[in-house]
Structures are given as structure tokens and as C-alpha cells.
Amino acid sequence: MGEMEQLRKEAESLKDQITAARKAVADATLPDTVSSTAVVGRVQLKTRKTLRGHLAKIYAMHWATDAKLCVSASQDGKLIVWDTLTTNKVNAIPLKSSWVMTCAYAPSGNMVACGGLDNMCSIYNLKGKDGNVKVMRELAAHTGYLSCCRFLSDSEIITSSGDCTCLLWDIETGTQKTTFAGHLGDCMSLAVPGDFKTFVSGACDFTAKLWDIRDSNCTHTFSGHESDVNAIAFFPNGNAVITGSDDATCKLFDLRSDQELITYQDSSIMCGVTSIAPSLSGRLILAGYDDFNVNIWDSLKAERVGVLAGHDNRVSCIGVSTDGMACCTGSWDSFLPSFSFKGQDNVMRLCKQNKQQYL
Amino acid sequence: MDEMDLPQMKKEVESLKYQLAFKREKSSKTVTDLVKWIEEVVPEDPFLNPELMKNNPWVEKGKCIIL
């Protein structure tokens, strides 16, 4: 038997053992555990602000930790930092490359980052001495597009790429510290939990992986999706992960028991999930879809309890603020000239709880 | 797996060994803990509690501001 064939057999055997180990701890299901819990009442969120200003498709947005500012990236070649309360643009940062696919706000609020088809992650200092926002670092090493980036601190950032890897960077020196390799398809998204010790990545190999940042090992591989995993987020308590896929479903995976707990799907939903975010408690999951809607799911009962309709094109990104008060959606809404009064620019909509109707 | 070359395959096997070694807890415990955590935080979740929205900074409070 050739070495390759031997390794293949060993891999299959290990996968079977992992399946058995998962089965061995599967002594309870989520539906059984919440069988006597009522579904939450219908959730209605009202659009409170519309952030207008981008001239082309909005690909990404990320809230600052102060829950007031956020950053958005558009293929009009701009990163805009918004004050969501006033809808003022705090910064409009012109990008070298307009083919941007992701953006991130540093937890400190001092920096933002973005990247895309230029294969680079560019870091911008928002708090420069002269008030101008300048490129601080250009992190180049990926051999594919930058799909997502998330700061761990002002000195470290994690990126995911179409080259199937994720990288941990030292921002000071502009060099890569750690490579996370293992996905067999483009990495589409990543998420970091509150303790910044691990991260999860979703990829076009239909899996999600959990990685230990310090030792670079993959500790969990979650399969089950039947197509690309486009969106991924940590559950607020850090012990579960939610994913959204081109297979039109979202899934909840439990880290401690290493199981898929439930799938959020409906026969009437046939388009891919582009973005996902949990509410503060995790009881609600907000997911953006290719059919221009955001569906709100009761995470425990796996029922749809609300819809945010209002975009005129694919919802590309969604984020819930850290205090749980607002959710912001960004979209590929069609461009209309800025002099048109009633036009819908490429908009970011801020939605907050309006009222709740109990059925 | 068919697209992997030998070094990648070796790394895949190492990774699978590492993943197998993870100490899985019984889902009867972990799912109960998860549900409990969610239910404890639900009363603080603005999207589920209209009363918390009284302090909603995005709602226009009045039409006039005294300068």
C-alpha cells in the first residue's frame, strides 16, 4: 500500500472514530430539552436610521464596541465610519483598491481594517495626530482574496482568504505569525469570541472549523452543510457557533459536546444565507439571505419569528451592536443618483425593536 | 481529500488525531447549560423586551432641542 493510500485509510478511520465519539455523548437533543418552552412572540424591528452615502454595493459592516459607531465597506472604494445616532459620516476613507469584501473595527476603536480582491488586509489608524486617516500597514501574504478580518487587539488581526487559509498577523511588524491551514475550500468568513483565545472559520468545503489561536491547531470540524458556509458567528456565551450557508440553512453547533444541535430551515427559503448575527441573549438569530430579506429565528425552537424586509437587493452583511440594542444591515441595493429624493441608495439600515405582538 | 498532496494529507491526519482527542461533554449537560444561559439573559435582550427600548437612543425624542 502506498503511503498516500495508508494515510487516506488512517484519515477515514479517524473520522469514523470522531463520529463514534460524538455519538457517545449525544444523550440529549435541543428540541427535547426545550419541548415545554414556548416559541417567542413575533419580533418586529423598526428601521430607525438609514445610512446613505455609499455609491455601490455594500459588502461588509462591523460595529465598534461602543455600540454607536460602525464601519462599512463598499465597492465604491470607500470605508465609511458612521455615527449611527446622528447618521453623520465620521470618516470617509478612500481605498487604493475598490474591490473590498470585508471590514473590521478594532475593539479599542483606534483602527479599522479592510481587504478584498487585492489579497491584502489594510490597516487604517483613525486616531492619527493630524486628524487624517492614513494606511498604517498593508498585510500581504495571502495568495487569494481577503474574505474577512477581525482584530484581536491593536497589535493582532486574523484574516481569512480565498487561498483556503487563515492568518494571524502582528500589526506592528506587518508580518504573519501563524497560519491556520486545513480547509479544503475558500475561507469565507471568520468570527472571534469574547476571550479572543480561539476563532471559527466557515469555508467553501462546506465545513466550519474552530482553531486555537496560540497553538494553531484545529480543535473541531463541523460538517453538515451541503454547500459553502458563507457566514459564521459565535453564540454570545462563546460555547456555540452559528453558521449560514448557500444550502439555504443556518445551523447551531455546540462546542462542548462537539455536535450539530439544530438546523434553521424552511421549505419556502431556497436561497443562500449571506450573513448571520445572534441577539444579545442568543435567543434570536438574525440571518441575511440572497432573497433580500433578513429572517429572525427563535434559536431554541427553530421557528421563524420575524422578517426584516426593506432592502431592494441581497443583504450582504448584518451586525448586532454589543449592547444588543440595534442591528444594522447592509445591502447590494441598486444605485440611484444622489439627487433623487425618494431614491434608495446603497443603504445601511439600523433596526431596533419597535413593539412585540404576542399571537 | 482527493485534492490533497502527501504533506497536506499528513497534516490532515495529524489534525484529525488532535480533533479526536478533544474531551467531549455529554450533550444532556451542555444543552441544558446553553438553554439556561440563554433564558437568564433573555430579560436583558432589547429585541425581546419592549420596556428596555424606552432608553432607545435612536428614537427621536422630541422635535426641538434647546441650544
Please provide a written account of the structure:
The complex is a heterodimer of chains A (359) and B (67). By secondary structure, chain A is mainly β. Chain A is built from 2 helices and 28 strands. Chain A has helices at 3-24, 30-33; strands at 42-54, 58-63, 69-74, 78-83, 88-94, 100-105, 111-116, 120-125, 134-140, 146-151, 156-161, 165-170, 175-181, 187-191, 198-203, 208-212, 218-222, 229-234, 240-245, 250-254, 259-264, 273-278, 284-289, 294-298, 303-308, 315-320, 327-331, 346-357. Chain B starts with 5 loop residues before the first helix and ends in a 26-residue tail after the last helix.
Q: Specify Rg of chain B, calculated over alpha carbons.
A: 25 Å
The tally of beta strands of chain A, per DSSP, is 28
N- to C-terminal distance of chain A: 64 Å
Share of β-strand residues of chain B: under 5%
Sheet/helix structural class of chain B: mainly alpha
Short structural summary:
The complex is a heterodimer of chains A (359) and B (67). Chain A is mostly beta strands and 359 residues long.
Q: What's the layout of helices and strands?
A:
The complex is a heterodimer of chains A (359) and B (67).
Chain A: H1 3-24, H2 30-33, E1 42-54, E2 58-63, E3 69-74, E4 78-83, E5 88-94, E6 100-105, E7 111-116, E8 120-125, E9 134-140, E10 146-151, E11 156-161, E12 165-170, E13 175-181, E14 187-191, E15 198-203, E16 208-212, E17 218-222, E18 229-234, E19 240-245, E20 250-254, E21 259-264, E22 273-278, E23 284-289, E24 294-298, E25 303-308, E26 315-320, E27 327-331, E28 346-357
Antiparallel strand pairs in A: 1-28, 2-3, 3-4, 4-5, 6-7, 7-8, 8-9, 10-11, 11-12, 12-13, 14-15, 15-16, 16-17, 18-19, 19-20, 20-21, 22-23, 23-24, 24-25, 26-27, 27-28
Chain B: H1 6-20, H2 27-41
Subunit structure (chain B): G proteins are composed of 3 units; alpha, beta and gamma.
Protein name (chain B): Guanine nucleotide-binding protein subunit gamma
Family (chain B): Belongs to the G protein gamma family.
